[in-house]
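Repro:
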Amino acid sequence: MGEDKVGLSAPWYEYQRKLKAFFEFDPDVEVDEVDEDENGVVHIGIIVKKHEKFEALNDILVLQLSFGGTVVLIDLYDAENRSLPAPADYAVAFKDNPVFQKLFKATVQGNTFYFFALDNEPVEFFNDDISDYRGNYHGFYADIAKEIFYAPVGIKFCTIAKQDK
């Protein structure tokens, strides 16, 4: 007999799949993928295309859950009233900043993603926390952008290879 492999996933993935199943045929609701921030908080974004439905879901959906020690937040976005930034906002904010290199747009299964490609040069500066023995921060602009900018569903920050500039 062959070996059967059992794949287990964290409970928040099952919760996200339940949300997707429930709203699968609703043209006004789009459930995004699971995303974990740098603090270990799990986010599941939901874009609601009609403001009235957004307000109703905001009142009735459980927006914060806990699975063991992991906090899961349901992030609702009101697309009709633009409570999430548009890609043009980032383009304006990054204009004339040499760190910003290129904007890529991709559509996958009807979902549009905007990838803001930032310079791939390492960033280093003095940082007096205990994350590094020498007190230096090492990272990339994309890592910093993920922390300092609000990035709703469909907005991604990445680095760009030198040959792609």
